[in-house]
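Hey Z.,

So I finally got round to the zinc ion thing we talked about over coffee. Here's the setup:
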Amino acid sequence: MTYFKEIKKGKGPKRLFIGGVHGKEGLTTIEALSQISEGDIKNGVLNIYNFEESPYISTLDRHYYASDRGKEIISIIRDLKPEMYVELHCYNSNSFCKLTDLDRKELTGVPPLIHLEKGVLIGSISPYIRTSLFDEWDVCITLEIPCKASKEAMDVYIKIIDAVASSKDKQELLDKLRKDYPEQIKTAAKYAIELYWEGYPPL
Ligand SMILES: [Zn+2]
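And the result:
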């Protein structure tokens, strides 16, 4: 069953967290998403979805957005129009090098993910939806954790989504993230701008 939760605290940013984007990732991402509670949100709106298993198609493959799950996610984004969007994913530990490879852009067309700590990686979202469904200044984050996550990794993963949930605006969020990960956030911002302007053709 899809896990859904909506928290409303008056005026403020609209936030959307999605786990279970493809494959069995929802089994891992629910552990983090279920930790977010009413008290974590100070203003605005947060909608949380965690989906059950679906066929694994990469979000870098345009066919993903023609699949049932891909279409569902597009329609949720179109309905809510979030200014802060976090996609929670998980990866097989063997893929760490491939995901963070500095040549990833040449190999796949998208920048590498950035290692925060404990195996938790941050990056932008699929270029197929980044430019067509969001504004330039919206916060769009992909967060990856090993699917078989250690407690330490899960704590970092939860800390990041909690920072997005509890920040009143983009500035507060960036300040929080920069405090713990100054270099990583600088690199992430650079990649995000490159990706936005050079991105893939929209769907
Ligand atoms: Zn994924």
